[in-house]
User: Fold these one by one.
Assistant:
Number 1:
Amino acid sequence: MTATTTTGLSVGIKQRLIQQALERRRSEAGDTAGGATLEQAQQAALKVPEAFYRFDQHPGYQQLRVIQQSAARLGLANPFFRMHEGTAGAETCIGSREYVNFASYNYLGYSGHPMVAEAAKAAIDRYGTSVSASRPVSGDRPLHRELERELASLYEVDDAVVFVSGHATNVTTIGYLFGPRDLVLHDELIHNSVLQGIQLSGARRLSFAHNDWQALDRILGEQRQHFERVLVVVEGIYSMDGDYPDLPRFVELKHKHKTFLMVDEAHSLGVMGATGKGIREHFGLAGDDVDIWMGTLSKTLASCGGYIAGNTALVEHLKFLAPGFLYSVGMPPSVTAAALAALQCLAHDRERVQAVQARGELFLRLAKEAGLDTATSTGLAVIPVITGSSFKAGRLSSALFDRGINAQPILYPAVPEHAARLRFFVSCEHTEAQITRTVAIVAEEMARIG
Ligand code: PMP
């Protein structure tokens, strides 16, 4: 058992606090040789508020508890961390009951696809379950290079590099490439991983109104000359709203103001463009119109991880110097093989791409006809239904769940309170009947909630 003091602190913790207080006092007094007596330091340590050394008093945890308690008071079941008992596709099994599922990014149904599953299993048999160190150290497997080559060829650029997490891809790429003399400009709805990367980089951060390239042009006109490198970051399809930027305008601005342009294709790969090659195909752009093509392997590609595709200087550079690649384990063989197999399926699966686009359009059209507020969604796989309050979003999600439909609420602070919503991810495997029934139930339950 750990020894405790009369204040309930373990002796070890107390000694560390005393030591920290002593050091703080010394540095405040500019005194490295020691100026405070041990007794003074002990007194100072005992005055440290509990909130500074207890996680249950952390502001984030306290906020979470308030949300959980008010949800419990209102009788709302927790919609998060639901336990799925099999592959979550257009349908899923939760607690032995079948649901129509709109809460996964399995847009083209490749998670659970026999070819993808077989490729992952074969990779384990051949290469084991881990590459056991970072790739510079433990070396590549042919699967890594094959996946990177296929990604580069999809974008018609020199090369690509894959990372073990999509989120970490943005954090480490932006965090490494940019610094305090630089500016990063991003759409106001950009994903958290981009914001984290900017914070890590120390670059100045400015946002522009959603999809407003004219606002971006104005900001660049005023700000460009004050910085060395400038990066503009947008998404292919916005994950909360299901709309997309007028990318050719952003390409023009990149040339006009001499900036870098980065596009996060997490949700657009497999969903946009006639053959699912993403926003580049949709607009008929060249690979080098964008400097940094970023995407995730966790959505259409039914795996886990992220990628950066671009010119040789960018990719080689990241492979040798981006901390999230250099100091992190290489992608496991099974995970790499699954993404590669999904990418190879995508190359021949026009029907799935057409189906996800058609089902999304159907959902959007029916929702609009039913008078639901779908904000700016274009019907490309991501369709929000705005409820106007977190409470209503929670109620609606729970009512749908009772009727066999799994759709997640997005609550404040993930979005502003008035923009709280349910978010539907449509897959090529949803049937027209499932979509028609779902929209009818959503409209009915929304009317009931009021
Ligand atoms: N970018 C965007 C736009 C995302 O929506 C997400 C997560 N959904 C990520 C990056 C992070 O990807 P991952 O979940 O694969 O880490």
Number 2:
Amino acid sequence: MLKIEDLSAGYENGFVVRNVRLKLEPGEFVAVLGPNGSGKSTLIRAALGLLRNARGAVLLGGRETAAMGRREVAREIAYVPQLPDPVFDFSAGEIVLMGRYARQGRLDAVTAGDAEAVREAMKATDTLAFKDRKLSRLSGGERQRVFIARALSQDTPVLLLDEPSLHLDINYQAEIYGLLKALQIREKKSILVAEHNINLAAAHSDRLLFLKDGAIAAEGTPRETVTAANIRAVFGADVDIRANTRTGVPEISLAAAESRR
Ligand code: ADP
Ligand code: MG
């Protein structure tokens, strides 16, 4: 579905992501983990073909995203940015409708299908209640859910989400990840998230990719990669690891420094 080959990417002052390869199969859920500044957002932007300073290849169904138009990419990949672009003060419903633009002609009126897609996406993200409210009047978590709704209304086979849990309370973290999981399983969507929450990522992903200083430091299933040694190497943190009693997936906890002596 999405294939990243030997990708190095960055900004005017040089590459910040180096020699990354990653394959996202249809119906696969992959999380990119790593400390602040390790290059997670850069990797996602490069995958969308948004960075001019990039070397290597990003293939979408065998075609290079860099050579595709923005609307063409937008029919295949929906993107939820980490810090949504500053926009004019649109209402929540208007933002979600923007997800439909890639499917419309420039001057097409909003169809019943568009309105239905918007409604479904807002229902799924619990944002219908403030459909007509301006973005500036919403909390960070509410805004985050509106941008996730926009991505859902886009109705693409691939979803890239940059820290979707960032502004969310634990109940919405569970809800949004549950929703993504359902889209993966029911609709075979391919999902790539950048996530700083190791436990959330491990609980929901088929594979994890750990980035450190822009390079892959570990890659594999949560069971293979969520180890105390990897967490120490990538994050410089000492953690305890236990298997979740229900699922067996490894979970980290920060033991109090005192109790670890
Ligand atoms: P993460 O998402 O893992 O926190 P980023 O991809 O945002 O990491 O950042 C990786 C590195 O690239 C950091 O050193 C950051 O300062 C730098 N960086 C991010 N965005 C830009 C930009 N627009 N211009 C120049 N450097 C940037
Ligand atoms: Mg980031």
